[in-house]
Amino acid sequence: MAPALDTYVRDGWIDRDERYRLINFLDRKGVTSEFDLLTSDDIAKHPYYQEFLAPFGLRWCAAVKIAAGDDFWSLSLQRSIQQGPFTPDEMRQLADLSRQLGSVAAVARAIGFGRADAALDAFSATETPAVMLDRSGNVLRPNAPAERLLGRGLQITRRRLVSFDRTATDALDRSLKALLCSPDTAASMPPVPLPRLQGRPLLAYPLRLPKVSYNALAPCQAIVILIDPDARPPPPEAVLQSCFRLTASEARLARKICSGHGVEAAADELGVSYETGRNQLKSVFAKTQTHRQSELVALLTRLSNGR
């Protein structure tokens, strides 16, 4: 199936998939196949089946609905030309399977919300603003510190996290799309500045937590950490050197990262190469026992509050 999937994406069949039109049948019946839409003669002439599927020996498909609450998945079952289409009896069995999988998905969804709420409570305990998002980048819920940052400059509109600056909103959407498309359940993205009407921009750190986004059924697929540089200025270099035994150059880099700079921009301002900056950041991570920039920023801003 891997070569077929590569061609599906690379050659644009993903945008011309005739089976998208089966969604209404799937939603209503719990199971669907080509024959809800096409005849055998239609399939024999259709480019999707003859130009894309046929070279891989594929043709037949059945889709099984998995639904829980507002979540809706499709389990796609593929068959070769030789195997033939799904029979009416098999379709009835798959409809029964759809109902069973719906119950399983509902339980998984409830467990997932429990994990996500626990993570959100942990962020709240450290006064770290955090917003939970679903697989489409829609807001599930913010914690109390995040709610305090919402206002005219940053809002939740139609379940989306939106800045008054359109360019910043677009940048955040692109970052979230890249994150949510990543197969890495521990992925994180560089900070996205979100301008405000007053003060320096908020810094949005999109990331995924393996214990929260543990599989495709988990309701929470991403978290955005919000850092307010005005409320939490980075600690002085001397404090960082004393607390974490950072070198002077590592402390300067850590302060730049805490202020919202990416590694490349921070290295450029400090007059060192990108490779040097990246190696220094690895050392900072090791000494502070953090693993990504968002964790480092959260740690150092908490330190700022206590100084």
Automatic annotation (TrEMBL):
<protein>
    <submittedName>
        <fullName>Regulatory protein LuxR</fullName>
    </submittedName>
</protein>
<dbReference type="InterPro" id="IPR016032">
    <property type="entry name" value="Sig_transdc_resp-reg_C-effctor"/>
</dbReference>
<dbReference type="GO" id="GO:0006355">
    <property type="term" value="P:regulation of DNA-templated transcription"/>
</dbReference>
<dbReference type="GO" id="GO:0003677">
    <property type="term" value="F:DNA binding"/>
</dbReference>
<dbReference type="InterPro" id="IPR000792">
    <property type="entry name" value="Tscrpt_reg_LuxR_C"/>
</dbReference>
<dbReference type="InterPro" id="IPR036388">
    <property type="entry name" value="WH-like_DNA-bd_sf"/>
</dbReference>
<feature type="domain" description="HTH luxR-type">
    <location>
        <begin position="243"/>
        <end position="300"/>
    </location>
</feature>
